[in-house]
Amino acid sequence: MVAHAVKLAPSILTADFGRLQEEILAAEHGGADLIHLDVMDGRFVPSITFGPLVVDAVHRITQLPLDVHLMIEEPERYLELFAKAGASIITVHLEACLHLHRAVQQIVDLGCQVGVALNPSTPIEEIREIAPFVDQVLVMSVNPGFGGQRFIQTMTSKLRRTRKLLDEFNPTCDLEVDGGIGVGNIRDALRNGANVIVVGSAVYNSGASVSENLAALREACSA
Ligand code: DX5
Ligand code: ZN
Prior knowledge:
Helix 2 links the parallel strand 2 and strand 3 (66-71). The longest helix is centred in the C-terminal third of the chain and has 15 residues, at 155-169. The protein has an eight-stranded parallel sheet with strand order 1-8-7-6-5-4-3-2. The protein is of the alpha/beta class and 223 residues long. Helix content is 31%, strand content 18%. The chain has seven helices and eight strands; from the N terminus they run E-H-E-H-E-H-E-H-E-E-H-E-H-E-H. Residues 11, 13-14, 36, 38, 69, 142, 144-145, 147-149, 178-181, 198-202 line the site of D-xylitol-5-phosphate (DX5). Zinc ion (ZN) is lined by residues 11, 36, 38, 69, 178, 198.
């Protein structure tokens, strides 16, 4: 069996955008492995966040790889802009792509790693044909659109089943989980096969500093 490195990917969605540089450097110095950037268009999901301009700004702030999660319709139209802005991994939603294989190929051709995301209600069988072509599968454990939502419990078994499918069709593929992860359930997510863990409100909140929160999450991984 392939050993997959555990990676923490703080999402800046609940960070203070007035102090974005500080917030990102705090994650980098606190031991984050990736910075997760949630791009929302107000159509695929209700919220609007930011586009390539902010991705480019973040790229100039940090050395960390940028994990760009596109929650937008017709992502094919914007892939080149996000690649140029410095994305390391570009993830598109399966539900947003009529020609998913073409979008995946475009991302590869742009020189980025490629991820495919699934909404909570999308059956994992739908990734069977695309699985051999991707570097990462992202299982949404909340409905996309907002930070700070509660983890949907049935997504634990979905993670397990997704890892099993990937072990069959693309064993080196990373499995990312996104939404509602904190110290109370991070270990469970790892045990069930996730290895790239998005953490938004568990990192950026008013309760403790970014580095304290990241340290607590690291500890919870092995607790
Ligand atoms: C939700 C986003 C997530 C979210 C994670 O649509 O994709 O990345 O910001 O935030 P938490 O960890 O607070 O659920
Ligand atoms: Zn995300």
